[in-house]
């Protein structure tokens, strides 16, 4: 999802503010290459302990490695600079819409339950699901903790991703993720790509088994996505195209205007 999302900014800011309030301060020094990463990790370990991260989370932090591929991806994002037409072509919008219609029918009971619970119709959920991971077919191949730690260390957005790193370590302590969990290049996890701070805030048990699993459970991933949209002002029954009430919630998911427009258009095609 969504390091671009407003909610992620809020979640990261919350974690950062909590860390600062604990008296830990900002001792860890950011860097722009791998050279200082191991030193930073030791400094970050002290901050994480001060924040209340337990031994499981600390051990996971110590096992992280500098992720060169994450830095390369962070510096090379291009698709959000495309025109809407080009963006939809590159991201396979027509395929997402056609497959999404079939999935809507195939999982009609799940989507009906989600709409009753959160007020969000199938279209936007399916459009996000398809746009983010091709309906769970590719959820990334990067170590979640190493990607998040690398971006927390990198000076470009250190404070922002430090909040997500603390959230990720909290999730390790809680058993939601582990040191071997795999996600996307910026530390997004699961079928609709949640950053750690958003998992803490909006993660929802959609299949009712008492556990949160955004990777293997489509119900958990989609319930979490619906919960996110509801938390960002989704109004049951209102429209979600540009200029309508629920477009604001889609904007909360992702700050890139072409992404927002594409989701709204694909969702409308799915919902009919």
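^ Assign residues to that structure.
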């Amino acid at each position: 999802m969504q390091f671009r999302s407003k909610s992620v900014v809020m979640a990261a800011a919350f974690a950062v503010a909590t860390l600062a309030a604990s008296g830990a301060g900002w001792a860890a020094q950011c860097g722009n290459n791998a050279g200082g990463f191991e030193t930073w990790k030791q400094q970050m370990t002290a901050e994480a302990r001060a924040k209340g991260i337990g031994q499981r989370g600390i051990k996971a932090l110590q096992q992280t490695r500098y992720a060169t591929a994450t830095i390369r991806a962070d510096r090379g994002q291009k698709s959000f600079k495309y025109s809407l037409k080009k963006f939809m072509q590159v991201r396979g919008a027509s395929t997402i819409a056609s497959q999404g219609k079939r999935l809507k029918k195939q999982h009609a009971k799940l989507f009906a339950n989600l709409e009753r619970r959160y007020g969000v119709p199938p279209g936007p959920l399916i459009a996000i699901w398809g746009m983010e991971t091709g309906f769970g077919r590719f959820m990334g191949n990067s170590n979640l903790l190493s990607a998040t730690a690398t971006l927390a260390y990198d000076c470009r957005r250190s404070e922002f991703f430090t909040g997500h790193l603390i959230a990720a370590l909290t999730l390790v302590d809680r058993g939601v993720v582990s040191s071997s969990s795999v996600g996307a290049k910026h530390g997004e996890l699961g079928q609709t790509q949640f950053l750690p701070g958003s998992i803490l805030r909006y993660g929802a048990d959609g299949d009712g088994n008492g556990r949160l699993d955004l990777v293997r459970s489509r119900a958990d991933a989609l319930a979490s996505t619906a919960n996110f949209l509801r938390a960002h002002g989704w109004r049951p029954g209102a429209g979600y195209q540009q200029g309508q009430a629920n477009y604001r919630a889609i904007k909360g998911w992702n700050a890139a205007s072409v992404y927002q427009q594409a989701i709204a258009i694909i969702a409308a095609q799915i919902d009919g």
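The CA atoms of residues 21 and 225 lie 30 Å apart.
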